Amino acid sequence: MLPRDEQRRLREIERQLVDDDPRLARRLSQTSMFGYVRANVSARLAMVACAGVLSIMCVFLNEGAAALTAATLAGILLISRNWRLGLD
Question: Where are the transmembrane segments (predicted)?
Answer without folding.
Answer: 46-79
